[in-house]
Amino acid sequence: MSELASEPSSAALSRTWIEHRPTGQGVRLEPTPSQTVGPFFGYALPFPGGPDLAPAGHPDTVTVHGYVYDGAGNPLPDAILDFWQAAPDGSRTGTPGSLRVDASNGELLGRDGVRFTGFGRVATTGDGHWALHTLPPAADAPYIAVGVFARGLLHHLYTRIYLPDAPDDALLSGLTPERRSTLRAREDATAAAGRAYRFDIRIQGDESEETVFLDFA
Amino acid sequence: MVTQQEIDKEIAELAGRVTPGGHPPRLYPPYRSSILRSPRQPLTLVTDPDAIELWTPVFGTGDVTELDADLTVRHSGEPIGERITVTGRVTDRDGRPVRNQLVEIWQANAAGRYVHRREQHPAPLDPNFTGAGRALTDANGDYRFTTIKPGPYPWGNHVNAWRPAHIHFSLFGTAFTQRLVTQMYFPGDPLFAYDPIFQAVTDPAAQQRLIAVYDHDRSVPEFSLGFRFDIVLDGPSATYFEEDHQ
């Protein structure tokens, strides 16, 4: 069915890298198609503490924030972003505890302020703004992976946020400077508190404007 | 606003196209909101085998309890509507189960009304129904929700636009690249032909994969009608997986 290829250098668990190659044996199942998240996810998907990936009061906390725009330059009041990143120690395995449910009443409690789960989620407000509070990702996976969902978007989009001091990796090196700049957050001295970076997501635009979105084939 | 007839014509021109994985094109003009909310630049291929996207967020029993999968017991009374049980298996394209992973759903009530302030449809809210639920898949990748059948509802895409009854699903796989948000529909809905969101999946075979199957064996006697909705997550041609050490 499938062949073993290389072991990932940073594998933390007993995980194995499998590369699928057509062998003529076995039938791959056809996937379930994507559909838009629609406008009414607000009472279902966001959770308390969704934007607060960094453990409470952690001194290395950074704020990454920005707007989501459409092709006419209008902000999206009904987008929702998933964030996923390596922990500062390079761990990629994530930790449970992003949602935490109160077993007595079913309400979500949000994070415990101790664990770094690697996963965050933020819905844009009416002005299209979002803000994430996190720890800088590890040097060997120096970016925050983003999933973009919105009314009108029939299939979500992936992009990455690189902080200004993150090294150019394989993805960045392969882009023109113009396209690369759409993946670089920039320092935001105007933010009210702490280290802050601005990262806007433009779903549609010309080469210099539209955010680079990713295909993992 | 354009008429249903004009939308029907646009749908017909695009119908039958086969797309990778059966996914809808991000630009599908009959769904008007997609016109400004779809990229124009080609996507950038990532082939880094160490990409964080090949790993996935994890959720545990502290995040989700079994009660979170029953949408009919959240309030002091019973919600109005046809009680249904929706079950299915989440797998990757090789049929490997996606274990212990988060499944989130949300939906309108039996009258076609969402608990959302921006919802303008003048149908009644149900004080006993919110319409959001969560579950973790089990060791076989199976999930199970108890809810009520949602109603169809009008929306503003064109004159006389109605959404077929559906339940929104959000899924995680064994890699972040397998993330899926989709909608589950009910068999035989007369609104399929008129709905540009459903029709954005242009391949008829792929459309069938969005429609739950009525399964009498999964109906619970004297309690609920059973629907089966198996979900196959798409993803990169290579993924990590947990080895079984038995």
Give the helix/strand layout:
The complex is a heterodimer of chains A (217) and B (246).
Chain A: E1 3-4, E2 15-19, E3 62-69, E4 79-84, E5 119-123, E6 129-134, E7 144-150, E8 157-161, H1 170-173, H2 177-180, E9 186-187, E10 195-198, E11 201-202, E12 214-215
Chain B: H1 4-14, E1 44-45, E2 83-92, E3 102-107, E4 132-136, E5 142-148, E6 153-155, E7 161-163, E8 166-171, E9 180-185, H2 196-199, H3 204-208, E10 213-214, E11 225-228, E12 231-233, E13 238-242
Parallel strand pairs in B: 2-11, 2-12
Antiparallel strand pairs in B: 2-5, 3-4, 3-8, 6-7, 8-9, 10-11
Structure description:
The complex is a heterodimer of chains A (about 220) and B (about 250). Chain A is mainly beta and about 220 residues long. Helices cover about 5% and strands about 25% of the residues of chain A. Chain A has two helices and twelve strands, in the order ββββββββααββββ. Chain A starts with a strand and ends with a strand. Helix content of chain B is about 10%, strand content about 25%. In chain B, strands 2, 5, 10, 11 and 12 form a five-stranded mixed sheet that branches. Chain B starts with a helix and ends with a strand. The chains are: A mainly beta (about 220), B mainly beta (about 250). Chain B: Its EC number is 1.13.11.3. Chain B: It comes from Actinospica acidithermotolerans.
Task: Supply database-style keywords.
heterodimer, A: 217 residues, mainly beta, 5-stranded mixed sheet, 4-stranded antiparallel sheet, globular, disordered N terminus, B: mainly beta, 13 strands, disordered C terminus
